[in-house]
Amino acid sequence: MEYSLPSYLDYSTTTLLSSLIILAAAYLTFRQFRHRRPPIYLLDFACFKPPQNYRVPYAAFAEHARFIVGEEIASFLVRVLEKSGLGEETALPVGAHYIEPSPRPTMSGSRDEAELVIFSAIDDLLKKTGVDPLDIGVLVINSNSFYPVPSLTSMVVNRYKLRSDIRSYSLASMGCSSGPISIGLARDLLIANPNTGLALIVSTEIITSPSWYQGKLRSMLIPNCLFRLGGAAILLSASPSHRPRSKYQLIHVIRTHLASDDRAYRCLWMEEDDAGHLGISLSKQVVDVASKALELHFATLCPLVLPLSEKLRYLSFLLQRSNKKSVSPAPTFVPEFRRAFDHFCLHAGGKAVVDGLQKVLELRDEEVEATRMSLHRFGNTSSSSVWYGLGYTEAKGRVRKGDRIWQLGLGGGFKCNSAVWRCIRDVDAKEGGGAWADCVHRYPVCC
Ligand SMILES: CC(C)(COP(=O)(O)OP(=O)(O)OC[C@H]1O[C@@H](n2cnc3c(N)ncnc32)[C@H](O)[C@@H]1OP(=O)(O)O)[C@@H](O)C(=O)NCCC(=O)NCCSC(=O)CC(=O)O
């Protein structure tokens, strides 16, 4: 990311610019106080832990691929898997374990997976929080590739016999960055309807879907190597009475949409190959596009989250640069994000995605540990991956009252979305265990 000032700006212009920035910041702060939203609390969340028998060790993946796509393509897939950052314990749904003749994903197979993932996560969350399902007034579910009739939200209302006046929304096709979108929607619904009760959000990707690719095109086979079973359920409240038992307060939801750029729009593209197999084609440019989306995203995020010291560092950078009138290449300014956040839960999209994010954000290895370990243990779980990252951080006993958490989602559209949280009470490692409870002691691993 680069912040640069045109060299023709002289000192007085820069001073004027600085004053304007300070005035604008003061005005925004004033406006923020005047129009302050009621606080939104996160009571708790739960991540789905796949059953052992759904595991896909490398050897099983390779053997399976050989049967389905033949030796040559199977060796390509294994090569990709070995470089993907995924470990030996990630899981795929039942349908993906079939050997040829591989059945097309069926509606009942997709429903089975959706019920397994979504109900397990919700059951766990309701058990942890002791919440009565009848207290839920808002329900938002985001799932990219599976959108049945009736919807996933109807499936949940039916299972838990939720209220008939529930405000429910199923968000489809919104990609891996849709977690913060769901959080933002639930927040707005809670604020617009103050006495509606709690909001339940589910972020997941159902793999047994028509777009689970069964052909032989490399760019469409890569998602089969990366995506794995996963989902998270989250409970939000706008009621101050829930504050004492809540873990986090929502500070910001920030969204950036880059679909006006054709390259970004098409870099994750659902289509049929020449043989008619539906799938999602993954462009090699995803990491480049993500960097561009991040630059735009930072323009909104940074003024909101950077502490004053970092904003002043930025101003002084501007002043120094304009005084130097140097002809050498423009220096870059990368904010020290660790001054704004204590924990980073980034989209675990694949090794190259995590490497790219670490580089762009100038993060240390320990700051991307939660993301890398989520990728290793659970794979690319789409929009829920940022919750596996937070689950890891909690299970390691690293979350303390006052800590600031950044969840960053990236995905199809192309979109880049953030949710920023502040921890409002210490979180005990055992309490945070969840999907990580029986394995966190084995992490971090080298990958
Ligand atoms: C796929 C990788 C694990 C491969 O690892 P490396 O890059 O280290 O290895 P590499 O460059 O040698 O690539 C291995 C082989 O894969 C091929 N290859 C890589 N990417 C490809 C692509 N998009 N299409 C076709 N082939 C591809 C290379 O040419 C090479 O083939 P050969 O060996 O023959 O030369 C990595 O590039 C990665 O993590 N990419 C990012 C994945 C990504 O986009 N994730 C986001 C998913 S979408 C998402 O999460 C959000 C959403 O859905 O909304």
Describe the structure.
There is one protein chain. The longest helix is centred in the N-terminal third of the chain and has 24 residues, at about 10-35. The strands form 2 sheets. A 9-stranded mixed β-sheet has the order 3-2-4-5-1-6-11-10-9, with helices on both faces. The chain has a two-stranded antiparallel ribbon with strand order 7-8. A hairpin with a 3-residue loop joins β10 and β11 (about 415-425). It is about 40% helix and about 15% strand. The chain is built from 14 helices and 11 strands. It has helices at about 10-35, 60-70, 70-85, 105-130, 150-160, 180-190, 220-225, 260-265, 285-305, 310-325, 350-360, 370-380, 385-395, 430; strands spanning about 40-45, 135-145, 165-170, 200-205, 230-235, 250-255, 270, 280, 345, 405-410, 415-425. α3 crosses α7. The protein is α/β, with parallel strands linked by helices. Malonyl-coenzyme A binds near residues 219, 282, 286, 350 and 411.
Number of helices, where a helix is a run of at least 4 consecutive DSSP H or I residues:
14
Report the bound ligands by name, code or SMILES. Answer: malonyl-coenzyme A
Give the uncertain stretches in residue-range form. Answer: 1-9
Give average pLDDT, whole number.
89
Strand order of the largest sheet: 3-2-4-5-1-6-11-10-9
Largest sheet: 9 strands, mixed
Q: Approximately what portion of the residues adopt beta-strand conformation?
A: 15-25%
Helicity, as a percent range: 40-55%
What is the H/E order?
HEHHHEHEHEHEEHEEHHEHHHEEH
Q: Pairing-aware structural class of the strands and helices?
A: alpha/beta
Distance between the termini: 26 Å
Shape: globular
Radius of gyration using CA atoms only: 23 Å
Number of strands: 11
GO biological process, one term: fatty acid biosynthetic process
Domain FAE: 34-321
Organism: Dendrobium nobile (Orchid)
EC number: 2.3.1.-
